[in-house]
UniProtKB/TrEMBL annotation:
Required co-factors: NAD(+)
Gene expressing this chain: hutU
Organism: Aureicoccus marinus
Protein name: Urocanate hydratase
Domain Urocanase C-terminal: from-to ranges: 436-639
Cofactor note: Binds 1 NAD(+) per subunit.
Function description: Catalyzes the conversion of urocanate to 4-imidazolone-5-propionate.
């Protein structure tokens, strides 16, 4: 059976033979057993409804075994025969370009070179799922292959509810993930309802089909590390030999060593999972693998003395590294953490004192004891970080819920009055005031032809646009513009592509629209093939997250989610090809609401109109909200935008003198 035939088949007509998990892939942790016997029956009933009754007798015990062994029903038997990776757009069976592009993006998310746990349909973060099971994958791809421009596919947490009549200007796909009733949005609720097969954690770009491998975060990490270095370096001093210590080499966190190299420092990234570290080393994202602590100590001292720019992956626990470096007197200039602490007890964080295998076993067999070990480890880690901080280390929370979970574990992360964290979020100190408030965020694109030559051409187009815009840019954003111009000019030589032919750079609304229009013009002229536009939800407008994206908003609205909801609704009727809204993300289930989009450029006049309207709103929705929160840089940005755009009218806040507030 050909690739196209298998896609169009959907659920097979004949029951395929059983399939086991492959040892060549990293697998999701075995989830703890959280369902009662009655709920397990319900989970089984929910899984079997995808298949005709004559198969139930054979599938029921198999699915029950999966649920018992793994805590979830993945339906391994129904994994497709075709290899999963981003193909050229013309290889997909489809009745419209947008549907083919979405198939491409879904397959890129599940490409074993890209995905963290591909056979469990998890792209990154330990639980960031594209689908809950393989039946959903098969049905979704079949619906996309059959869809026309008068239909829209509605996705309920991985489940394709079906094709509904719509209109050519409507989104082709509407995606929701984990949209729980608020009183049922605790981490334990995710465990239960995901096990039942009725919801999933879409992370930020996994469940919205917009993940582009570790490159997707390497740019933001590079900007973060670069500006963190600027905080500690003396004028004219380079970052060579300045030590950046962090943890995590999985999906998103795998970008850290590459970002350290580009930013020009010495980085050490600890990773407890050997497979994850070896994968990043094989892909060229980290320079050296080290398994022995004494060897790590020697190598760091040697490279520090040489003022080297180099990335080291230590296969072991980062807590041990923090403690040993303190004992050895090794000065850590920058410190952070990017383990998946939004999922602290289900494989997102591995505690010190246990091996990778021991942790996975305890996680399943003794979850209460495992939680105690995680909390004990977090207290140890914070104690060691505090030792380094007292000696001058600049530590920042990188939006993975490290400070939040450490506080919950009783670690000493509070200020003297315990009202705030003693360490800033990177958004509070760096990305918020420098980027988000000015409308700069992670704009990305994918060359749907699959041709590296198309990506090279889009890099050159983007560079030309930025070179022109930087000449007209106000002083406040000159540094951001120059950083991004340098980034795109060096992107090819930095070998950032994993999976699809994709690129990312930080741009504001003016930059995004200008770059996108230039792409659409090039497509119309036949210079390049179709291009898919998107962004990380980690942006100025798409995400309401009080401990990350909106942590530099101080009017109290950081705990509201109006912006993200308006973002996805506003994008949907301004031309997005697909839209998505999720509960959860990098900081955890119940802690964030984030929205995203995809927009397909095909060189048409209609695509030009869509990109102008949708990208303008997608950015300025967030800038306006940040201005209303009295963020000064956002006010400058929205006032400048109103001067450029007569149709835009935004309410500006009046500032109040402190003397009028002393009434209580």
């Amino acid at each position: 059976m050909t690739f196209k035939e298998e896609i169009l088949q959907g659920i097979p007509d004949r029951l395929p033979p059983p399939k086991g998990r492959s040892d060549q892939f990293s697998h999701a942790p075995r989830r703890k057993q959280v369902l009662s016997p009655a709920e397990k029956k319900l989970a089984l009933r929910n899984a079997l409804r995808y298949f005709k009754p004559e198969w139930h007798a054979e599938l029921a015990p198999e699915f029950a075994q999966e649920l018992q062994e793994y805590g979830r029903i993945y339906m391994y038997r129904f994994m497709p025969e075709h290899p999963i990776h981003a193909r050229p757009i013309e290889d997909y069976p489809a009745n419209c370009t947008e549907a083919a592009a979405i198939q491409l993006m879904i397959q890129n998310n599940l490409d074993p070179e890209v995905a963290q746990h591909p056979q469990e349909l998890i792209t990154y973060g330990g639980n960031g799922a594209v689908f809950q099971n393989w039946a959903q994958y098969r049905l979704c791809m079949k619906y996309l292959a059959e869809m026309n421009e008068d239909q829209s596919l509605h996705m309920y947490s991985g489940h394709p509810m079906g094709l509904f009549p719509s209109a050519p200007g409507s989104p082709r796909v509407v995606v929701t993930n984990g949209m729980m009733i608020p009183n049922h949005s605790k981490p334990a609720d995710w465990d239960k309802y995901n096990a039942l097969g009725v919801t999933q954690y879409g992370q930020m770009t996994a469940g919205s089909y917009m993940y582009i491998g570790p490159q997707g975060i390497v740019h933001g990490t590079t900007i973060t590390v670069m500006n963190a270095l600027r905080k500690i370096l003396k004028p004219g001093e380079s970052g060579g030999g300045k030590l950046f210590l962090t943890a995590g080499l999985g999906g998103m966190s795998g970008a850290q060593p590459k970002a350290g190299n580009i930013a020009g420092c010495l980085s050490v990234c600890a990773e407890i999972n050997p497979h994850a570290a070896e994968k990043r080393h094989a892909q060229g994202w980290v320079d050296e693998l080290i398994r022995d602590m004494d060897e790590l100590i020697y190598r760091v001292k040697e490279l520090t003395a040489q003022k080297a720019v180099r990335s080291l992956a230590f296969i072991g626990n980062v807590v041990d590294v923090w403690e040993r470096f303190a004992d050895e007197g090794i000065h850590v200039h920058l410190g952070s953490d990017q383990t998946s602490l939004h999922l602290p007890y289900s494989g997102g964080y591995y505690p010190a004192g246990l091996s990778f295998e021991e942790s996975n076993q305890m996680m399943k067999e003794d979850p209460i004891r495992f939680e105690e070990k995680v909390q004990e480890s977090l207290r140890r880690q914070v104690e060691a970080i505090n030792r380094h901080s007292s000696m001058g280390t600049y530590f920042f929370d990188y939006g993975n819920a490290f400070l939040l979970e450490s506080k919950r574990a009783g670690a000493a992360v509070g200020t003297s009055d315990q009202k705030e964290f003693r360490y800033p979020s990177y958004v509070q100190d760096i990305l918020g005031p420098l980027c988000f408030d000015f409308g700069f965020g992670p704009f990305r694109w994918v060359c749907a032809s699959g041709k590296p030559s198309d990506l090279e051409k889009t890099d050159a187009i983007a560079a030309r646009v930025l070179e022109k815009l930087i000449q007209e840019a106000p002083e406040e954003i000159q540094q951001q513009m120059q950083d991004n111009l340098n980034w795109i000019q060096q992107a090819g030589e930095n070998k950032l592509v994993v999976g699809s032919q994709a690129r990312i750079l930080y741009a504001d609304a003016v930059g995004r629209i200008a770059i996108a229009q230039a792409f659409n013009d090039a497509i119309e002229k036949g210079e390049i093939g179709p291009v898919v536009l998107g962004r990380d939800h980690h942006d100025v407008s798409g995400t309401d997250s009080p401990y990350r994206e909106t942590s530099n908003i101080y009017d109290g609205s950081q705990f509201t989610a109006d912006m993200a909801i308006h973002n996805v609704i506003g994008d949907s009727f301004r031309g997005a090809s697909w839209v998505s809204i999720h509960n959860g993300g990098g900081v955890g289930w119940g802690e964030v609401i984030n929205g995203g989009f995809g927009l397909v450029l095909d060189g048409s006049e209609q695509a030009s109109k869509r990109l102008q309207s949708m990208l303008f709103y997608d950015v300025n929705n967030g800038v306006a909200r940040r201005s209303w929160a009295r963020n000064p840089n956002a006010r400058l940005a929205i006032e400048r935008e109103m001067e450029r755009s007569p149709g835009l009218r935004v309410q500006l806040p009046h500032l109040v003198a402190e003397e009028h507030l002393n009434q209580f």
